[in-house]
UniProtKB/TrEMBL annotation:
Taxonomy of the source species: Bacteria, Pseudomonadati, Bacteroidota, Saprospiria, Saprospirales
Keyword Calcium carried by entry: no
Catalytic activity field: N-(5-phospho-beta-D-ribosyl)anthranilate = 1-(2-carboxyphenylamino)-1-deoxy-D-ribulose 5-phosphate
Keyword annotations of the record: Amino-acid biosynthesis, Aromatic amino acid biosynthesis, Isomerase, Tryptophan biosynthesis
GO molecular function: phosphoribosylanthranilate isomerase activity
Name this polypeptide is given: N-(5'-phosphoribosyl)anthranilate isomerase
Record Pfam families: PRAI (PF00697)
Pathway: Amino-acid biosynthesis; L-tryptophan biosynthesis; L-tryptophan from chorismate: step 3/5
Cross-referenced Gene3D superfamilies: Aldolase class I
Biological process annotations from GO: L-tryptophan biosynthetic process
Organism: Phaeodactylibacter luteus
Residue ranges constituting the N-(5'phosphoribosyl) anthranilate isomerase (PRAI) domain according to the UniProt record: 10-208
The keyword Transcription belongs to this UniProt entry's keyword annotation: no
EC nos: 5.3.1.24
Length: 214
């Protein structure tokens, strides 16, 4: 059992899928946007689903039409979908109408973006189950966040359910949880060193710090 929710994002191989499932991550995310980095085919997702239990399967999309996303939801039995930063409000509304849980990704380009992102979240409040703030794509880290936007980030977490992709040392996980009030974190695996083998040393440190002993 973990202290907070974890979404494993952009999984491309069974080794990662089984690793995150074993640690009881809340969600396993698969990129279903053809032509983009880390894309996996629906057939591959279906095959990997057979090897994991107890996790929610998320299809990750960018700007696909709602009807195409809903087709994937039906074919793959997705538990939720993640929409990219530029997905339309209409797409979110269509998915909400079909009772499909949505994780809305919002990429933070610079610290001053947070106020504008708050406006976006307000417009989507009640339609998205969680907002995934991605600081990592632009090299923004927890160390810098503490000096720049901690109060703003804390306020967002009070107003909206937040998942953070925000790099920090595993030794500081308690501090991040306490000071941000986030609902959870988004993490990402990587390529296998060879089929069926890879090192999880860094992720092991994080999950060990999050583990709750009963």
């Amino acid at each position: 059992m973990l202290k907070t929710k974890i979404k494993a994002s952009s999984i491309t191989n069974l080794t990662d899928a089984r690793y995150f499932a074993a640690w009881e991550a809340e969600w396993l995310g698969f990129n279903l946007d053809p032509g983009t980095e880390n894309y996996v085919s629906p057939a591959t997702v279906q095959a990997m689903k057979e090897w994991v239990d107890g996790v929610k399967i998320v299809g990750e999309f960018n700007q696909q039409e709602a009807r195409d996303i809903l087709t994937s939801v039906d074919i793959l039995g997705l538990d939720a979908v993640q929409l990219g930063t530029f997905a339309s409000l209409e797409t979110l509304q269509a998915l909400h109408a079909k009772e499909v849980p949505v994780l809305q990704e919002l990429v933070v380009e610079e610290w001053s973006d947070l106020s504008a992102l708050a406006t976006q979240m307000e417009a989507r409040s009640g339609l998205a189950a969680y907002f995934l703030l991605d600081f990592a794509k632009n090299g923004l880290s927890w160390a810098a966040a503490k000096s720049n936007v901690l109060a703003e980030l804390r306020q967002l977490a009070e107003d909206f359910p937040l998942l953070l992709n925000l790099p920090f040392p595993a030794s500081e996980v308690e501090e991040v949880l306490e000071q941000t009030g986030a609902a959870g974190f988004s993490v990402q695996g990587g390529e296998e060193e060879k089929v069926g083998f890879k090192s999880f040393d860094e992720l092991d440190d994080l999950f060990e710090a999050l583990e709750v002993f009963e």
